[in-house]
């Protein structure tokens, strides 16, 4: 017997917008059709669009260890209010998710607080417990940091890690910035305090070269134009930027937050150049909707890794539209206003975004920047495929009833004070978005113009390697 019926739902079905009723039973979609049942709760979606719940494959909910910035409850509330019904949390918490003890600590907090379903990624350092974490149910490994932070690893360590991840059949999520180049340029420029200098300290080539290095480790042929340019830019500084060993690894590689036209070029050549290396990539909303000129408005609040770019927006939009970029992920990385109000070198890198990604993208559809079907694919279907979330990302019989109901005519300005993240600010202040009216997770209303469920209802989604 049906629990809920979404009546008059306007969904994208077989490449056309059609009006249907979605019958939900036991948290899953039981049927899509025209029938109604007087016994079920009815939600009338007349005149509104219904899409699958968004899967955000890249969030940092800061819990455990940094809950002054965010925690699993506030982060998941922000997710639900933005139409995100599944998140994958990355490992750089305190402690980082590197072994059974740290994994269980994060899992316990998430199970007590999260209102949306979640996966947890395992961290990668030289002593990572790959097999242990995989059997515990991590979704993937990474971000694997090639630059910055306590989790940064060397080229040899990355090579070894990719080998271990490949043996498990897992996904390696790569933060692709060449660490030596970033360090070299930072050292040259660190006396300059203007915020925009940060983009110069991490130029486009740092990303492109890092992607090329990762893929070459797995047997992809050299990409000379990228390598030569990197060596030329670092001629007085970084050592061995072109030193990469080719090994037969073939890990399933996912490049996080692609941000440059050069990076797009490398991915495009790999995907369409006859190579058999399994590579996917994502783009973050801050690289689609913000650029170098926004430094003047944002100051240190615009600091992120990779940084704001010049003349890259159209290249990223083109790559997203043609499928070179597979998915959209927020890289939600909140910091408090107090932490951000300092000089550019001391301010932490990262911006909040889990609640505003879908609203920004739906407004982009309205502006004809991207078709609706591509937004749905890049935010629901594709991330489900990449990360093994078999019951997520589709409006289809047997799938979890993760549904977002939205009035596409309801455009409003984004205001940080109205968002649910603990930090209370957004780099997209004043930009227009289309926010959900109602959000269901496994058939339960979690958001209906306000948070509408209890903390802790979110479900841990075990990864492919999980051993009960």
Automatic annotation (TrEMBL):
One of its GO terms (biological process) is purine nucleobase catabolic process. Substrate binds at residues 60-62, 92, 335, 349-350. Its EC number is 3.5.2.3. The keyword Lipid biosynthesis does not apply. Its cofactor is Zn(2+). InterPro entries: Amidohydro-rel (IPR006680), DHOase (IPR004722), DHOase/Allantoinase_Hydrolase (IPR050138), Dihydroorotase_CS (IPR002195), Metal-dep_hydrolase_composite (IPR011059), Metal_Hydrolase (IPR032466). The active site is at residue 331. GO terms for cellular component: cytoplasm. Keywords: Hydrolase, Metal-binding, Pyrimidine biosynthesis, Zinc. Belongs to the metallo-dependent hydrolases superfamily. DHOase family. Class I DHOase subfamily. Catalyzes the reversible cyclization of carbamoyl aspartate to dihydroorotate. This is Dihydroorotase. It comes from Candidatus Methanogaster sp. ANME-2c ERB4. The gene is pyrC.
């Amino acid at each position: 017997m049906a629990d809920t019926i979404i009546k008059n739902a306007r969904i994208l079905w077989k490449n056309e917008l059609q009006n249907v009723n979605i019958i939900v039973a036991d948290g899953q979609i039981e049927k899509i059709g025209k029938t109604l049942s007087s016994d079920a709760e009815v939600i009338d979606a007349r005149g509104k669009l219904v899409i699958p719940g968004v899967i955000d494959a890249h969030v940092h909910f800061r819990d455990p260890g940094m809950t002054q910035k965010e925690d699993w409850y506030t982060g998941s509330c922000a997710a639900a209010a933005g139409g995100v019904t599944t998140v994958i949390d990355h490992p750089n918490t305190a402690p980082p998710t590197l072994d059974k003890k740290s994994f269980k600590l994060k899992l316990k907090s998430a199970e007590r607080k999260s209102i949306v379903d979640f996966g947890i990624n395992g961290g990668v350092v030289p002593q990572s417990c790959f097999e242990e974490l995989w059997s515990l149910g991590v979704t993937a490994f990474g971000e694997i940091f090639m630059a910055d932070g306590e989790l940064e690893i060397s080229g040899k360590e990355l090579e070894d890690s990719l080998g271990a991840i490949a043996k498990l059949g897992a996904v390696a999520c790569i933060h692709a910035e060449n660490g030596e180049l970033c360090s070299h340029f930072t050292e040259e420029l660190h006396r300059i305090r203007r915020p925009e200098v940060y983009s110069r300290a991490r130029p486009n080539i740092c990303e492109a070269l890092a992607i090329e290095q990762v893929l070459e480790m797995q047997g992809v042929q050299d990409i000379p134009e990228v390598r030569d340019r990197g060596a030329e830019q670092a001629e007085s500084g970084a050592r061995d930027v072109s030193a990469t060993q080719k090994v037969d690894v073939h890990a399933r590689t996912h490049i996080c937050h692609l941000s440059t036209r050069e990076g797009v070029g490398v991915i495009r050549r790999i995907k369409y150049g006859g190579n058999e290396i399994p590579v996917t990539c994502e783009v973050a909303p801050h690289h689609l909707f913000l650029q170098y000129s926004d430094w003047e408005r944002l100051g240190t609040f615009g600091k992120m890794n990779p940084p704001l770019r010049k003349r890259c927006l159209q290249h990223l939009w083109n790559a997203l539209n043609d499928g070179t970029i597979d998915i959209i992920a927020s890289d939600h990385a909140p910091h408090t206003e107090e932490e951000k109000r300092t000089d550019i070198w001391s301010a932490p890198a990262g911006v909040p975004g889990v609640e505003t990604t879908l609203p920004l993208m739906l407004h982009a559809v309205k502006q004809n920047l991207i078709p609706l079907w591509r937004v749905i694919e890049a935010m629901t279907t594709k991330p489900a495929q990449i990360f093994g979330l078999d019951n997520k990302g589709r409006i289809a019989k047997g799938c979890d009833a993760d549904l977002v109901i939205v009035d596409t005519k309801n455009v409003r300005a984004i205001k940080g004070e109205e968002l649910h993240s603990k930090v209370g600010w957004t780099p997209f202040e004043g930009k227009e978005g289309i926010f959900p009216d109602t959000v269901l997770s496994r058939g339960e209303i979690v958001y209906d113009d306000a948070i509408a469920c209890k903390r802790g209802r979110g479900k841990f989604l075990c990864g492919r390697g999980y051993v009960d």
